[in-house]
Amino acid sequence: MSSGILKFACASAALLFSSEAQALDWNKVTGKDVVLFYPAQMSWEMLLTQSDHSGAGKFREGKNCAGCHEGEEKASGKLLVNDKSTEPTPIAGKPGFVMANVRTAHDGERIYVRVEVDPGQQPDVGMDKDFASKLAVMIDDGKVPEATRAGCWATCHDNLTRMPSGGAGETQKYLSRSRVSLSRKGGAEIKPAADLDKIRAEGGYLEYWQARLNPGKAAVAVDGTILERRAENAAPAVSVEAAENGTKWTVIFSRKMTAGGLHKDFAAGKTYTIGISLHAGHAAQRFHYVSLEKTLSIDSGKADFVAARH
Ligand code: HEC
Question: What separation in Å is there between the alpha carbon of 69 and the centre of ligand 1?
């Protein structure tokens, strides 16, 4: 009798444990390939200038980047990684693109974004001394229309560090709305703090998650926001699990769907924009790979990624 009770108790404890440890059966979630390509120095301001980019006019009229470039990413990456006009300091032997496979899901409490990515053999450029690779997801919930239309490029200005008008300066990613005005060289003057606080309170910023990766070591999880600069949160709401197999990484980001603070709420019925980036081979700043703008919805919808409940 008593051993029967004991068995029952053990069995339910084991069940509980396994359902926590394997919250999600990823085999049941369909993945989608995403091309991460090398963008060189193609800034927001350059892309909006007709004489520099023939898509500028149509983009201004309402056609999104993916509307013209989806399916062309591999070719663009191969071109840009060695193109002296947009990449003044090419990295010898750098591949022009990297493939990622992305799956999304939620369990009612947390949202999960799982990325499999294989940077392959990458030249070690030693720019980031601390981490070999950094995988990031940038997120908007519709509050930043230019991110809906252009994904990561909403933050990629001409005067950022190592961009044409930024040189060796310290300017980090920002949104146009944080600047007093913008020219072909980006925006130099930042709006007063009170204006920025108001924009932040209205949700007019982007959120990002980052997994900092070194072979053989636990991943470091970071999250933060982008408005007038990239601002890292003191304690991340996002968690990261990462595993490596040869040169391939499988990275699972997860966080509470409602995390409070400067985090976007994830809810059914809304569409989000995500952009994915990868720094590989100890690269930093613009020497990364990026996706075009991708959409994400919860439970249902026509998005690139539909995070279903599991
Ligand atoms: C109306 C179609 C159209 C739209 C919209 C458009 N582009 Fe382009 N883009 C082009 C064409 C055509 C070229 C090649 C000729 C050139 O560079 O002007 C090009 C070139 C590029 C290149 C250089 C690599 C290559 O393959 O030539 C990049 C990078 C790029 N576009 C990114 C973007 C981004 C990011 C956006 C959104 C902000 C965007 N484009 C919007 C048509 C478009």
Answer: 7
